Amino acid sequence: MKLDSIAVLGGGPGGLYAARLLKLSHPDAVVTVYEQSTPDSTFGFGVGLASRTQHNLRQADQDSLNGIVAAAYGHEASMRVGDNEVHLSSGEVLAIGRTELLSVLQAFARGVGVNLRFSDRRAVADLDADLIVAADGISSPTRTGLTDDFDPSIAKGDGLYLWCGTDFALPRAIFVPVTTEHGTFVAHAYPYAKDRSTFLIETDEATWKRAGFDISTEETPNSHSDQVSLDYLQEAFKETLQGHPLIGNRTKWTRFRTIRCRRWHTGNVVLIGDAAHTAHYSIGSGTKLAMEDAIALDRSLLEASALDEALENYETARRPAVEHLQAIAERSMAWWDSFPERLDLPVAQLMVAYMTRAGKVSVERFVESTPDVARPGLAAYANVDALEVPSAPEVTAWVLGRPLESSGRRFTDRLAPPRLRTAADTVAVEVTVRPWSEDARKLVENLPSARAYWLTGPDDRETVYDRFDIGERIRRTTGALVVAEVPVGFEGDAAGALVSERIDLVAFYRAD
């Protein structure tokens, strides 16, 4: 198809990358990016790029990826609880300052003839172009202005978080909780330059209020940083900060917003990135999603003969991957929101729980890729020496085969005996609610007293993970034994739930 003009609204990473790809594919088209801010104006600190994202960018445009990698900073990861820390080899994980990333992408867009218009705010109604790509962010004016066409829904998370930074490079990425007189704060921090690190800090609403941050948030203008919170957190995380300050950049507490749209295109307008969808930062950055959207859009435009067909194909091809990631991300967000409840776990076991929290990584894969962390975590679960933990092919069966003692009862393995389900002190619970919803809270609070709870539900993998998450809430609330029914074929998922202490026993069955 021939496109004579393409307008991109938004000069963030997604918009710039889309503009370059579209200009390369349609060299005769006039491609213009309209960005309301100045070239060096940005919000945030570092942007992480996992190895899989780098692979996708390399396949789409090797040259721009080379430019990004040259300006990026590699790092590994760790988790620390108290005085105990475990290190995680994270492969080819890179981070880059958002300002540096924008500079690289601006240069590569200009290099192929894209027109960059800064301090130039435009709306769809202002433009006369064959194609309008709206990459205008989480608060997208395009999406807002065409609400009836895109039909968005927005769900807010329970916890609160803020982005800040510091003026030195941490030795590696770190997940670290700190408990103060007001409650627990959890930092996700990583280096992105030789003299810079990102600090993302989370907490629950009750802790946030006890610390007075509801008041400081209310009193801080949107154009400023909440210095009251930064000063408090700088003291709380002084060990990790090694005496360095926390730096703000319009830093205020907020709740994560998960955005979904029934449609991503209307007429000649198409949404990409945060304008169309968001996924919690603990699973994948908005930058990653936006740039991968740009790749899919470019491919669909090349393959189709008409614009309507191309935009429909883009959405059809891209939506399943985005929705899958959003489902995983929501589960991960809930795990982090409830992270302080797990601080009783040994840190190596907590790392296994972290890696398997949303079904993206199995116990087997974790043992295979990082045995020096996974084996101590599995050993803590089984109360054995790490040398007794087998290698990857046998580890799932080994986890399922561990004995259990609970409330005076002994089980030879983690397979629930059928007689347990019909025991007088066992209560069957059908799980049909989302694990971290208000309905789930009421479900757990209103459970009749029992020594064991037997969880049932639908057969699909997503709802099996709902049972695991509800199971963890029940275990930690009641102290009772928790059994989850799991379809045959999901043994690896069950192993992760057992090691993470989300359930105690599993009952396998063959789904219809």
Task: Explain this structure.
This protein is an alpha/beta fold and 512 residues long. The chain folds into 3 domains: 5-42 and 55-71 and 95-153 and 258-333, FAD/NAD(P)-binding domain (3-Layer(bba) Sandwich), CATH 3.50.50.60; 160-247, D-Amino Acid Oxidase, Chain A, domain 2 (2-Layer Sandwich); 344-509, no CATH class. Helix content is 41%, strand content 23%. It is built from 20 helices and 24 strands. Helix 1 packs parallel to helix 11 (286-303), helix 2 (51-60) packs parallel to helix 11 (286-303) and helix 3 (62-71) packs antiparallel against helix 4 (98-111). The longest helix is centred in the middle third of the chain and has 31 residues, at 307-337. The protein starts with a strand and ends with a strand.
Strand order of the largest sheet: 6-5-12-13-14-11-15
Given as residue ranges, the uncertain stretches (5+ residues, pLDDT < 50) are none
How far is it from the N-terminal to the C-terminal residue, by CA?
46 Å
Structure summary, number of beta strands: 24
Q: Structural class of the secondary structure composition?
A: alpha/beta
As a whole number of angstroms, the C-alpha radius of gyration is 24 Å
Using the coordinates above, name the CATH class of the largest domain. Answer: Alpha Beta
**What is the overall number of helices?**
20
> Beta fraction of the residues?
15-25%
- CATH superfamily name of the largest domain? FAD/NAD(P)-binding domain
User: Might you state the CATH topology name of the largest domain?
Assistant: FAD/NAD(P)-binding domain
* Global morphology: globular
- Multimeric organization: single chain
The main β sheet shows up as: 7 strands, mixed
Helix content: 40-55%
**Total domains, how many?**
3
For the record, the CATH architecture of the largest domain stands as 3-Layer(bba) Sandwich
Average predicted local confidence, pLDDT: 94
